[in-house]
Amino acid sequence: MMKNIQRSIYSMLIGAALVGMGSCTKDFEEINKPYKQADEQTASIPGLFNGLVSSLGKYGDDALNVSLLYPITNQQARQNTVAPYINYSGTFWSQYYPDLLTYKALLKKIAEQPSPKAFDNVRHMATVLLASKTLRMLDYYGDIPYSQASNARDGAGYYRPAYDAQQDVYKSVLQGLKNAADSITSDPSQTSIGASESYLKNDFNAWRKFANALRLRYAVRLYNKENALSSAIIKEILEGNKPLPANQSVTALQNDNFGLWPNLIAGASGAILERLSSKWDSYRELSISNIRMSSNVWKQMSSSDDPSGKDIYDPRCVVFFMTNNADKWVPQPQDGSVADGGRPFDNGTERKAIGSDPQNKFATFNYFIAYDRLYYPILVITEADVHFLKAEIYQRGMGVAKNTTLAKTEYEAGLKASVDFWYAYTQQSQIWLQKPPAPDATKMNAFINHPAVAYNGANDADALKKIATQAWLATMFQPAEAWAIVRRTGLTPKDPLYNPGSINKLPYPDDENVNNHENWNKVTKGATPAEQVATKVYWMQ
Protein backbone atom coordinates (compact mmCIF):
# COMPACT_ATOMS: atom_id res chain seq x y z
CA MET A 1 0.00 0.00 0.00
CA MET A 2 1.29 3.41 -0.83
CA LYS A 3 3.12 5.01 2.06
CA ASN A 4 0.90 7.97 2.57
CA ILE A 5 -2.20 5.79 2.77
CA GLN A 6 -0.44 3.51 5.23
CA ARG A 7 0.46 6.53 7.31
CA SER A 8 -3.08 7.84 7.16
CA ILE A 9 -4.31 4.43 8.21
CA TYR A 10 -2.11 4.43 11.28
CA SER A 11 -3.32 7.88 12.29
CA MET A 12 -6.96 7.11 11.50
CA LEU A 13 -7.16 3.97 13.63
CA ILE A 14 -8.53 5.94 16.54
CA GLY A 15 -9.68 9.12 14.83
CA ALA A 16 -11.87 7.54 12.19
CA ALA A 17 -12.07 3.80 11.78
CA LEU A 18 -12.29 2.64 15.36
CA VAL A 19 -15.33 4.65 16.34
CA GLY A 20 -16.75 3.90 19.76
CA MET A 21 -13.78 2.06 21.30
CA GLY A 22 -12.58 4.60 23.81
CA SER A 23 -9.07 6.05 23.91
CA CYS A 24 -5.94 4.04 23.21
CA THR A 25 -2.83 4.26 25.36
CA LYS A 26 -0.39 4.67 22.50
CA ASP A 27 0.44 8.06 21.03
CA PHE A 28 -1.01 7.89 17.52
CA GLU A 29 0.33 11.32 16.64
CA GLU A 30 3.51 9.49 15.69
CA ILE A 31 1.94 8.51 12.41
CA ASN A 32 5.01 6.83 10.98
CA LYS A 33 5.02 4.17 13.72
CA PRO A 34 4.28 0.74 12.19
CA TYR A 35 0.82 -0.59 13.00
CA LYS A 36 2.25 -3.71 14.63
CA GLN A 37 3.63 -1.50 17.38
CA ALA A 38 0.25 -0.03 18.21
CA ASP A 39 -1.56 -1.16 21.33
CA GLU A 40 -4.63 -3.04 20.09
CA GLN A 41 -5.75 -4.14 23.53
CA THR A 42 -8.28 -1.34 23.95
CA ALA A 43 -9.76 -1.88 20.48
CA SER A 44 -13.02 -3.67 21.25
CA ILE A 45 -14.83 -6.02 18.91
CA PRO A 46 -18.08 -3.96 19.11
CA GLY A 47 -16.13 -0.77 18.47
CA LEU A 48 -14.32 -2.21 15.45
CA PHE A 49 -17.58 -3.47 13.97
CA ASN A 50 -19.39 -0.19 14.56
CA GLY A 51 -16.44 1.56 12.93
CA LEU A 52 -16.99 -0.45 9.75
CA VAL A 53 -20.63 0.62 9.75
CA SER A 54 -20.20 4.29 10.60
CA SER A 55 -17.44 4.73 8.01
CA LEU A 56 -20.12 4.28 5.35
CA GLY A 57 -20.95 7.90 6.08
CA LYS A 58 -17.86 8.76 4.05
CA TYR A 59 -19.01 6.77 1.03
CA GLY A 60 -21.65 9.22 -0.20
CA ASP A 61 -19.18 11.20 -2.28
CA ASP A 62 -21.21 14.16 -3.55
CA ALA A 63 -18.20 15.78 -5.24
CA LEU A 64 -17.49 12.72 -7.39
CA ASN A 65 -21.18 12.17 -8.06
CA VAL A 66 -21.67 15.70 -9.34
CA SER A 67 -18.39 16.07 -11.19
CA LEU A 68 -18.59 12.73 -13.00
CA LEU A 69 -21.26 10.15 -12.23
CA TYR A 70 -24.43 12.18 -12.73
CA PRO A 71 -23.24 13.67 -16.04
CA ILE A 72 -21.95 10.45 -17.61
CA THR A 73 -25.04 8.49 -16.58
CA ASN A 74 -27.27 11.17 -18.15
CA GLN A 75 -29.17 11.38 -14.87
CA GLN A 76 -28.84 14.95 -13.62
CA ALA A 77 -28.31 18.19 -15.50
CA ARG A 78 -26.00 20.97 -14.33
CA GLN A 79 -24.40 24.04 -15.79
CA ASN A 80 -20.90 22.72 -16.39
CA THR A 81 -21.55 19.05 -17.28
CA VAL A 82 -18.43 16.94 -16.54
CA ALA A 83 -16.17 18.82 -14.10
CA PRO A 84 -12.53 18.03 -13.15
CA TYR A 85 -13.50 14.71 -11.55
CA ILE A 86 -9.87 13.52 -11.39
CA ASN A 87 -9.54 15.78 -8.34
CA TYR A 88 -11.97 13.44 -6.57
CA SER A 89 -11.16 10.08 -8.17
CA GLY A 90 -8.99 8.95 -5.26
CA THR A 91 -11.54 9.65 -2.53
CA PHE A 92 -13.08 6.20 -2.44
CA TRP A 93 -9.62 4.62 -2.60
CA SER A 94 -8.44 6.47 0.48
CA GLN A 95 -11.66 5.57 2.33
CA TYR A 96 -11.49 1.86 1.55
CA TYR A 97 -8.08 0.94 2.90
CA PRO A 98 -8.67 2.17 6.46
CA ASP A 99 -11.80 -0.01 6.39
CA LEU A 100 -9.81 -2.99 5.15
CA LEU A 101 -7.40 -2.45 8.02
CA THR A 102 -10.26 -2.19 10.52
CA TYR A 103 -11.69 -5.46 9.18
CA LYS A 104 -8.36 -7.25 9.55
CA ALA A 105 -7.95 -5.84 13.06
CA LEU A 106 -11.42 -7.15 13.90
CA LEU A 107 -10.56 -10.65 12.65
CA LYS A 108 -7.35 -10.58 14.69
CA LYS A 109 -9.25 -9.48 17.79
CA ILE A 110 -11.79 -12.27 17.34
CA ALA A 111 -9.02 -14.86 16.94
CA GLU A 112 -7.56 -13.74 20.28
CA GLN A 113 -10.76 -14.45 22.21
CA PRO A 114 -11.03 -17.50 24.50
CA SER A 115 -13.93 -18.78 22.35
CA PRO A 116 -13.47 -17.34 18.84
CA LYS A 117 -16.35 -19.38 17.36
CA ALA A 118 -18.76 -17.51 19.58
CA PHE A 119 -18.03 -14.49 17.37
CA ASP A 120 -18.69 -16.23 14.04
CA ASN A 121 -21.78 -14.09 13.38
CA VAL A 122 -19.81 -10.91 13.97
CA ARG A 123 -17.10 -12.12 11.60
CA HIS A 124 -19.62 -13.04 8.91
CA MET A 125 -21.50 -9.73 9.21
CA ALA A 126 -18.23 -7.81 8.95
CA THR A 127 -17.31 -9.88 5.88
CA VAL A 128 -20.56 -8.86 4.18
CA LEU A 129 -19.96 -5.20 5.02
CA LEU A 130 -16.42 -5.24 3.68
CA ALA A 131 -17.55 -7.17 0.59
CA SER A 132 -19.98 -4.38 -0.32
CA LYS A 133 -17.09 -1.90 -0.22
CA THR A 134 -14.59 -4.15 -2.01
CA LEU A 135 -17.01 -4.82 -4.86
CA ARG A 136 -17.45 -1.11 -5.45
CA MET A 137 -13.67 -0.67 -5.44
CA LEU A 138 -13.44 -3.22 -8.25
CA ASP A 139 -16.27 -1.54 -10.18
CA TYR A 140 -14.49 1.80 -9.84
CA TYR A 141 -10.85 0.92 -10.41
CA GLY A 142 -10.45 -2.61 -11.80
CA ASP A 143 -7.34 -4.32 -10.40
CA ILE A 144 -6.55 -3.23 -6.83
CA PRO A 145 -4.12 -4.11 -4.02
CA TYR A 146 -6.13 -6.56 -1.94
CA SER A 147 -4.63 -9.78 -0.63
CA GLN A 148 -1.44 -8.06 0.55
CA ALA A 149 -2.97 -4.67 1.38
CA SER A 150 -3.25 -3.27 4.91
CA ASN A 151 -0.73 -5.82 6.21
CA ALA A 152 1.99 -3.31 7.09
CA ARG A 153 2.10 -4.57 10.66
CA ASP A 154 3.62 -7.78 9.25
CA GLY A 155 6.68 -6.01 7.95
CA ALA A 156 8.13 -3.68 5.33
CA GLY A 157 7.53 -6.24 2.60
CA TYR A 158 3.86 -5.25 2.68
CA TYR A 159 4.34 -1.52 2.40
CA ARG A 160 3.96 -1.67 -1.38
CA PRO A 161 1.54 -4.52 -2.10
CA ALA A 162 0.95 -5.98 -5.52
CA TYR A 163 -2.32 -5.45 -7.36
CA ASP A 164 -4.68 -8.43 -7.52
CA ALA A 165 -6.47 -9.22 -10.77
CA GLN A 166 -10.02 -7.96 -10.42
CA GLN A 167 -11.57 -11.21 -11.62
CA ASP A 168 -9.80 -13.06 -8.83
CA VAL A 169 -11.01 -10.60 -6.21
CA TYR A 170 -14.59 -10.78 -7.51
CA LYS A 171 -14.51 -14.58 -7.18
CA SER A 172 -12.98 -14.46 -3.72
CA VAL A 173 -15.49 -11.92 -2.44
CA LEU A 174 -18.44 -13.82 -3.90
CA GLN A 175 -17.27 -16.99 -2.17
CA GLY A 176 -16.94 -15.06 1.08
CA LEU A 177 -20.48 -13.77 0.68
CA LYS A 178 -21.80 -17.29 0.12
CA ASN A 179 -20.01 -18.53 3.22
CA ALA A 180 -21.42 -15.66 5.25
CA ALA A 181 -24.99 -16.05 3.95
CA ASP A 182 -24.92 -19.79 4.65
CA SER A 183 -23.28 -19.47 8.07
CA ILE A 184 -24.99 -16.57 9.84
CA THR A 185 -27.06 -18.22 12.54
CA SER A 186 -29.64 -17.44 15.19
CA ASP A 187 -27.91 -19.85 17.60
CA PRO A 188 -28.07 -18.25 21.08
CA SER A 189 -24.48 -19.34 21.73
CA GLN A 190 -23.31 -16.56 19.42
CA THR A 191 -22.04 -13.42 21.15
CA SER A 192 -24.19 -10.34 20.64
CA ILE A 193 -22.49 -6.97 20.21
CA GLY A 194 -25.73 -5.22 21.08
CA ALA A 195 -26.26 -1.66 19.90
CA SER A 196 -22.89 -1.69 18.14
CA GLU A 197 -24.54 -3.87 15.49
CA SER A 198 -25.79 -0.64 14.02
CA TYR A 199 -26.32 -1.81 10.45
CA LEU A 200 -29.20 -4.28 10.69
CA LYS A 201 -29.74 -4.41 14.48
CA ASN A 202 -28.96 -8.12 14.78
CA ASP A 203 -31.65 -9.13 12.27
CA PHE A 204 -29.82 -12.19 11.00
CA ASN A 205 -32.26 -12.93 8.20
CA ALA A 206 -31.74 -9.39 6.92
CA TRP A 207 -27.98 -10.07 6.89
CA ARG A 208 -28.59 -13.20 4.81
CA LYS A 209 -30.74 -11.17 2.44
CA PHE A 210 -28.06 -8.49 2.14
CA ALA A 211 -25.37 -11.06 1.30
CA ASN A 212 -27.56 -12.86 -1.24
CA ALA A 213 -28.65 -9.60 -2.86
CA LEU A 214 -25.02 -8.68 -3.45
CA ARG A 215 -24.30 -12.15 -4.81
CA LEU A 216 -27.20 -11.87 -7.25
CA ARG A 217 -26.14 -8.40 -8.39
CA TYR A 218 -22.63 -9.56 -9.21
CA ALA A 219 -23.74 -12.84 -10.75
CA VAL A 220 -25.67 -10.75 -13.26
CA ARG A 221 -22.79 -8.30 -13.65
CA LEU A 222 -20.25 -11.07 -14.34
CA TYR A 223 -22.59 -13.28 -16.36
CA ASN A 224 -21.03 -12.67 -19.76
CA LYS A 225 -17.47 -13.24 -18.47
CA GLU A 226 -17.99 -15.92 -15.82
CA ASN A 227 -21.03 -17.73 -17.16
CA ALA A 228 -20.66 -20.99 -15.24
CA LEU A 229 -19.99 -19.27 -11.91
CA SER A 230 -22.78 -16.73 -12.38
CA SER A 231 -25.29 -19.32 -13.53
CA ALA A 232 -24.56 -21.48 -10.49
CA ILE A 233 -25.06 -18.53 -8.12
CA ILE A 234 -28.32 -17.48 -9.78
CA LYS A 235 -29.67 -21.03 -9.81
CA GLU A 236 -28.73 -21.62 -6.18
CA ILE A 237 -30.35 -18.40 -4.97
CA LEU A 238 -33.54 -18.45 -7.03
CA GLU A 239 -34.29 -22.14 -7.21
CA GLY A 240 -33.08 -22.68 -3.66
CA ASN A 241 -35.33 -19.89 -2.37
CA LYS A 242 -32.45 -18.21 -0.57
CA PRO A 243 -33.47 -15.15 1.47
CA LEU A 244 -33.71 -11.97 -0.63
CA PRO A 245 -35.30 -8.55 -0.04
CA ALA A 246 -39.06 -8.72 -0.60
CA ASN A 247 -42.18 -7.05 0.75
CA GLN A 248 -40.26 -4.36 2.61
CA SER A 249 -41.52 -3.37 5.99
CA VAL A 250 -42.85 0.16 6.08
CA THR A 251 -41.45 0.64 9.58
CA ALA A 252 -38.11 -1.17 9.09
CA LEU A 253 -37.04 -0.12 5.61
CA GLN A 254 -33.39 -0.92 6.34
CA ASN A 255 -34.13 -4.67 6.53
CA ASP A 256 -34.76 -4.84 2.77
CA ASN A 257 -32.97 -1.68 1.59
CA PHE A 258 -29.38 -1.91 2.67
CA GLY A 259 -27.02 0.95 3.35
CA LEU A 260 -26.10 3.48 6.01
CA TRP A 261 -29.18 4.58 7.94
CA PRO A 262 -27.93 7.40 10.19
CA ASN A 263 -30.68 6.92 12.76
CA LEU A 264 -29.47 3.38 13.48
CA ILE A 265 -25.80 4.12 14.08
CA ALA A 266 -24.64 3.60 17.64
CA GLY A 267 -23.62 7.02 18.94
CA ALA A 268 -25.37 8.71 16.02
CA SER A 269 -25.96 11.86 18.04
CA GLY A 270 -22.24 12.58 17.96
CA ALA A 271 -19.51 12.22 15.38
CA ILE A 272 -21.52 10.35 12.75
CA LEU A 273 -24.12 13.11 12.47
CA GLU A 274 -21.40 15.72 12.34
CA ARG A 275 -19.89 13.82 9.43
CA LEU A 276 -23.23 13.48 7.69
CA SER A 277 -23.96 17.16 8.17
CA SER A 278 -21.31 17.71 5.51
CA LYS A 279 -23.86 16.27 3.07
CA TRP A 280 -26.06 19.32 3.60
CA ASP A 281 -23.04 21.61 3.47
CA SER A 282 -21.99 20.09 0.16
CA TYR A 283 -25.44 20.65 -1.34
CA ARG A 284 -25.10 24.31 -0.49
CA GLU A 285 -21.87 24.54 -2.49
CA LEU A 286 -22.37 26.18 -5.87
CA SER A 287 -21.28 23.20 -8.00
CA ILE A 288 -23.74 20.87 -6.28
CA SER A 289 -26.56 23.35 -5.82
CA ASN A 290 -26.40 23.76 -9.60
CA ILE A 291 -27.77 20.24 -10.11
CA ARG A 292 -31.13 20.30 -11.85
CA MET A 293 -33.69 17.78 -13.01
CA SER A 294 -32.48 16.86 -16.46
CA SER A 295 -34.53 16.86 -19.64
CA ASN A 296 -33.47 13.23 -20.09
CA VAL A 297 -34.96 12.12 -16.77
CA TRP A 298 -38.04 14.30 -17.21
CA LYS A 299 -38.86 12.44 -20.43
CA GLN A 300 -38.95 9.20 -18.46
CA MET A 301 -41.36 10.62 -15.87
CA SER A 302 -43.76 12.87 -17.76
CA SER A 303 -45.53 12.28 -21.06
CA SER A 304 -45.33 15.95 -22.02
CA ASP A 305 -43.40 19.13 -21.21
CA ASP A 306 -46.45 20.78 -19.64
CA PRO A 307 -44.90 22.75 -16.74
CA SER A 308 -47.98 22.28 -14.57
CA GLY A 309 -46.91 18.67 -14.07
CA LYS A 310 -50.33 17.35 -15.07
CA ASP A 311 -48.73 14.70 -17.30
CA ILE A 312 -46.29 13.33 -14.73
CA TYR A 313 -46.91 9.58 -14.65
CA ASP A 314 -44.03 8.45 -12.41
CA PRO A 315 -45.00 8.98 -8.73
CA ARG A 316 -41.33 9.27 -7.71
CA CYS A 317 -40.93 12.54 -9.59
CA VAL A 318 -42.39 14.65 -6.78
CA VAL A 319 -40.16 12.92 -4.23
CA PHE A 320 -36.95 13.15 -6.24
CA PHE A 321 -37.44 16.72 -7.46
CA MET A 322 -39.17 20.02 -6.70
CA THR A 323 -40.49 22.78 -8.92
CA ASN A 324 -38.55 25.88 -9.93
CA ASN A 325 -38.89 29.40 -8.55
CA ALA A 326 -42.14 29.89 -10.48
CA ASP A 327 -43.49 26.59 -9.05
CA LYS A 328 -43.26 24.99 -12.51
CA TRP A 329 -41.90 21.65 -13.66
CA VAL A 330 -39.26 22.79 -16.12
CA PRO A 331 -36.24 20.52 -16.79
CA GLN A 332 -32.79 21.83 -17.62
CA PRO A 333 -31.43 20.72 -21.00
CA GLN A 334 -29.19 17.73 -20.35
CA ASP A 335 -26.18 19.42 -21.93
CA GLY A 336 -26.45 22.43 -19.63
CA SER A 337 -26.77 24.75 -22.64
CA VAL A 338 -29.19 26.97 -20.71
CA ALA A 339 -27.74 28.17 -17.41
CA ASP A 340 -29.47 28.47 -14.06
CA GLY A 341 -27.95 30.65 -11.37
CA GLY A 342 -30.38 29.95 -8.54
CA ARG A 343 -29.47 28.72 -5.06
CA PRO A 344 -32.44 26.56 -4.02
CA PHE A 345 -30.60 24.82 -1.17
CA ASP A 346 -29.15 27.90 0.51
CA ASN A 347 -31.85 28.31 3.11
CA GLY A 348 -32.75 27.22 6.69
CA THR A 349 -34.96 24.19 7.12
CA GLU A 350 -37.28 24.45 4.12
CA ARG A 351 -37.07 25.44 0.48
CA LYS A 352 -36.90 29.09 -0.48
CA ALA A 353 -40.27 30.69 -0.93
CA ILE A 354 -41.69 30.56 -4.45
CA GLY A 355 -40.72 33.76 -6.26
CA SER A 356 -37.74 34.57 -4.01
CA ASP A 357 -35.05 33.00 -6.24
CA PRO A 358 -35.68 34.39 -9.74
CA GLN A 359 -32.51 32.88 -11.25
CA ASN A 360 -33.74 29.40 -10.36
CA LYS A 361 -35.33 28.52 -13.71
CA PHE A 362 -35.39 24.72 -13.53
CA ALA A 363 -36.74 21.98 -11.29
CA THR A 364 -34.08 20.67 -8.95
CA PHE A 365 -33.35 18.03 -6.33
CA ASN A 366 -36.04 17.96 -3.69
CA TYR A 367 -34.94 20.28 -0.90
CA PHE A 368 -35.74 17.77 1.82
CA ILE A 369 -33.51 15.07 0.33
CA ALA A 370 -30.67 17.57 0.26
CA TYR A 371 -31.30 18.71 3.83
CA ASP A 372 -32.02 15.34 5.47
CA ARG A 373 -28.89 14.24 7.33
CA LEU A 374 -30.81 12.41 10.06
CA TYR A 375 -32.73 9.72 8.18
CA TYR A 376 -31.77 9.82 4.49
CA PRO A 377 -29.83 6.61 3.75
CA ILE A 378 -26.65 6.11 1.74
CA LEU A 379 -27.95 3.08 -0.14
CA VAL A 380 -25.94 0.06 -1.29
CA ILE A 381 -28.65 -2.24 -2.67
CA THR A 382 -32.43 -2.11 -2.39
CA GLU A 383 -35.40 -4.40 -2.78
CA ALA A 384 -36.23 -2.65 -6.05
CA ASP A 385 -32.71 -3.31 -7.36
CA VAL A 386 -33.14 -7.02 -6.66
CA HIS A 387 -36.52 -7.23 -8.42
CA PHE A 388 -35.07 -5.61 -11.54
CA LEU A 389 -32.14 -8.05 -11.47
CA LYS A 390 -34.59 -10.95 -11.27
CA ALA A 391 -36.66 -9.49 -14.11
CA GLU A 392 -33.57 -9.45 -16.34
CA ILE A 393 -32.59 -12.95 -15.24
CA TYR A 394 -35.98 -14.40 -16.18
CA GLN A 395 -36.29 -12.38 -19.38
CA ARG A 396 -32.88 -13.54 -20.61
CA GLY A 397 -32.91 -17.01 -19.08
CA MET A 398 -29.72 -16.42 -17.08
CA GLY A 399 -28.89 -19.55 -15.08
CA VAL A 400 -32.58 -20.50 -14.96
CA ALA A 401 -35.18 -21.16 -17.61
CA LYS A 402 -36.46 -18.12 -19.50
CA ASN A 403 -39.85 -17.13 -18.11
CA THR A 404 -41.35 -13.89 -19.38
CA THR A 405 -44.31 -14.18 -17.00
CA LEU A 406 -41.99 -14.18 -13.99
CA ALA A 407 -39.94 -11.42 -15.61
CA LYS A 408 -43.05 -9.23 -15.82
CA THR A 409 -43.98 -10.04 -12.22
CA GLU A 410 -40.52 -9.06 -10.97
CA TYR A 411 -40.39 -5.94 -13.11
CA GLU A 412 -43.68 -4.68 -11.74
CA ALA A 413 -42.62 -5.66 -8.21
CA GLY A 414 -39.52 -3.50 -8.75
CA LEU A 415 -41.61 -0.50 -9.76
CA LYS A 416 -43.84 -0.90 -6.74
CA ALA A 417 -40.93 -1.48 -4.35
CA SER A 418 -39.17 1.67 -5.54
CA VAL A 419 -42.27 3.85 -5.23
CA ASP A 420 -43.22 2.35 -1.87
CA PHE A 421 -39.71 2.83 -0.53
CA TRP A 422 -39.45 6.52 -1.36
CA TYR A 423 -42.89 7.40 -0.03
CA ALA A 424 -42.32 5.41 3.16
CA TYR A 425 -39.01 7.24 3.57
CA THR A 426 -40.67 10.66 3.30
CA GLN A 427 -43.34 9.69 5.84
CA GLN A 428 -40.79 8.53 8.40
CA SER A 429 -38.25 11.31 8.03
CA GLN A 430 -38.67 14.14 10.52
CA ILE A 431 -36.93 16.47 8.06
CA TRP A 432 -39.72 16.24 5.47
CA LEU A 433 -42.04 18.98 6.69
CA GLN A 434 -44.18 18.63 3.57
CA LYS A 435 -44.88 14.94 3.03
CA PRO A 436 -46.29 14.03 -0.39
CA PRO A 437 -49.31 11.70 -0.22
CA ALA A 438 -48.51 8.19 -1.43
CA PRO A 439 -50.16 7.15 -4.72
CA ASP A 440 -53.25 5.02 -4.34
CA ALA A 441 -53.86 1.77 -6.23
CA THR A 442 -55.41 3.61 -9.18
CA LYS A 443 -52.37 5.83 -9.64
CA MET A 444 -49.98 2.91 -9.28
CA ASN A 445 -51.87 0.92 -11.90
CA ALA A 446 -51.78 3.91 -14.23
CA PHE A 447 -48.00 4.14 -13.73
CA ILE A 448 -47.35 0.44 -14.30
CA ASN A 449 -49.57 0.38 -17.41
CA HIS A 450 -48.36 3.66 -18.93
CA PRO A 451 -47.11 2.97 -22.50
CA ALA A 452 -43.62 4.14 -21.58
CA VAL A 453 -43.49 1.69 -18.67
CA ALA A 454 -45.79 -1.26 -19.52
CA TYR A 455 -43.96 -4.57 -19.86
CA ASN A 456 -44.06 -6.74 -22.98
CA GLY A 457 -42.02 -9.89 -22.43
CA ALA A 458 -42.71 -11.07 -25.97
CA ASN A 459 -40.39 -8.33 -27.23
CA ASP A 460 -36.94 -9.00 -25.76
CA ALA A 461 -35.38 -5.73 -26.90
CA ASP A 462 -38.20 -3.61 -25.49
CA ALA A 463 -38.39 -5.60 -22.25
CA LEU A 464 -34.64 -5.37 -21.54
CA LYS A 465 -34.59 -1.68 -22.35
CA LYS A 466 -37.45 -1.03 -19.94
CA ILE A 467 -35.78 -3.08 -17.21
CA ALA A 468 -32.56 -1.10 -17.66
CA THR A 469 -34.43 2.21 -17.72
CA GLN A 470 -36.39 1.52 -14.55
CA ALA A 471 -33.37 0.07 -12.74
CA TRP A 472 -31.50 3.26 -13.69
CA LEU A 473 -34.32 5.48 -12.41
CA ALA A 474 -34.56 3.47 -9.19
CA THR A 475 -30.87 4.22 -8.56
CA MET A 476 -31.34 7.98 -8.86
CA PHE A 477 -29.59 8.38 -5.51
CA GLN A 478 -27.19 5.45 -5.96
CA PRO A 479 -24.95 7.02 -8.61
CA ALA A 480 -22.25 4.35 -8.41
CA GLU A 481 -24.82 1.68 -9.20
CA ALA A 482 -26.41 3.81 -11.93
CA TRP A 483 -22.96 4.05 -13.55
CA ALA A 484 -22.62 0.26 -13.41
CA ILE A 485 -26.03 -0.18 -15.07
CA VAL A 486 -25.08 2.27 -17.82
CA ARG A 487 -21.73 0.57 -18.48
CA ARG A 488 -23.07 -2.97 -18.32
CA THR A 489 -26.27 -2.71 -20.34
CA GLY A 490 -25.80 0.19 -22.75
CA LEU A 491 -29.61 0.42 -22.70
CA THR A 492 -30.28 3.40 -20.43
CA PRO A 493 -31.82 6.60 -21.84
CA LYS A 494 -29.49 9.21 -23.28
CA ASP A 495 -30.05 12.71 -24.53
CA PRO A 496 -29.10 12.75 -28.24
CA LEU A 497 -27.60 16.24 -27.89
CA TYR A 498 -25.37 15.33 -24.95
CA ASN A 499 -22.36 13.04 -25.20
CA PRO A 500 -20.12 13.23 -22.14
CA GLY A 501 -17.57 10.80 -23.57
CA SER A 502 -16.63 7.28 -22.52
CA ILE A 503 -15.26 6.84 -19.00
CA ASN A 504 -15.02 3.17 -18.15
CA LYS A 505 -13.24 3.35 -14.81
CA LEU A 506 -11.65 5.77 -12.39
CA PRO A 507 -7.92 6.46 -12.69
CA TYR A 508 -5.68 5.35 -9.87
CA PRO A 509 -4.67 8.05 -7.38
CA ASP A 510 -1.45 9.85 -8.33
CA ASP A 511 0.11 8.78 -5.05
CA GLU A 512 0.09 5.19 -6.23
CA ASN A 513 2.40 6.18 -9.09
CA VAL A 514 4.74 7.84 -6.60
CA ASN A 515 4.71 5.47 -3.64
CA ASN A 516 3.79 2.11 -5.17
CA HIS A 517 5.26 2.79 -8.59
CA GLU A 518 6.48 -0.67 -9.57
CA ASN A 519 3.14 -2.34 -8.91
CA TRP A 520 1.20 0.62 -10.31
CA ASN A 521 3.26 0.45 -13.51
CA LYS A 522 2.56 -3.28 -13.97
CA VAL A 523 -1.15 -2.53 -14.05
CA THR A 524 -1.24 0.77 -15.94
CA LYS A 525 1.81 0.38 -18.23
CA GLY A 526 2.50 4.02 -17.38
CA ALA A 527 -0.83 5.31 -18.70
CA THR A 528 -1.91 8.81 -17.72
CA PRO A 529 -5.16 9.27 -15.79
CA ALA A 530 -6.84 10.40 -19.02
CA GLU A 531 -5.70 7.18 -20.70
CA GLN A 532 -6.58 4.93 -17.77
CA VAL A 533 -10.27 5.82 -17.91
CA ALA A 534 -10.55 4.18 -21.35
CA THR A 535 -9.72 0.77 -19.84
CA LYS A 536 -12.80 -1.36 -19.33
CA VAL A 537 -13.39 -3.09 -16.01
CA TYR A 538 -13.58 -6.86 -16.15
CA TRP A 539 -17.30 -7.33 -16.67
CA MET A 540 -17.71 -4.76 -19.45
CA GLN A 541 -18.19 -6.00 -23.01
Instruction: Give the CA-based shape.
Output: globular
Oligomer: single chain
Number of helices: 21
Straight-line distance between termini = 30 Å
Q: Give the mean pLDDT.
A: 87
Structural class: mainly alpha
- Extended strand count: 8
Radius of gyration: 23 Å
- Largest sheet, described in full? 2 strands, antiparallel
Strand percentage, roughly? under 5%
Number of domains as seen in the coordinates: 2
In spatial order, strands of the major sheet run 1-5
Specify the helix fraction band: 40-55%
* Uncertain regions spanning at least 5 consecutive residues: 1-40
H-E string:
HHHEHHEEHHHEHHEHHEEHEHHHHHHHH
Description of the structure:
- The protein is mainly alpha-helical and 541 residues long.
- It is 47% helix and 4% strand.
- Helix 6 runs antiparallel to helix 7.
- The protein is globular.
- The model is unreliable at 1-40 (pLDDT under 50).
Provide a concise account of the structure shown.
The protein has about 550 residues and is mainly alpha-helical.
Core attributes:
mainly alpha, 541 residues, two-stranded antiparallel sheet, disordered N terminus, 21 helices, two-stranded antiparallel ribbon, 2 domains, globular, Serine Threonine Protein Phosphatase 5, Tetratricopeptide repeat
Q: What is this structure's SSE topology?
A:
Elements (H helix, E strand, L loop, with lengths): L2 H15 L27 H10 L7 H11 L3 E2 L13 H21 L8 H22 L2 E2 L17 E2 L1 H18 L20 H18 L5 H13 L18 E3 L7 H17 L1 H4 L2 E2 L1 H4 L18 H4 E2 L41 E2 L1 H5 L6 E4 L1 H14 L7 H25 L12 H8 L11 H15 L4 H11 L20 H6 L1 H8 L4 H4 L9
Helix pairs in contact: 1-4, 2-4, 3-18, 4-5, 5-6, 6-7, 7-8, 7-14, 14-15, 14-17, 15-17, 17-18
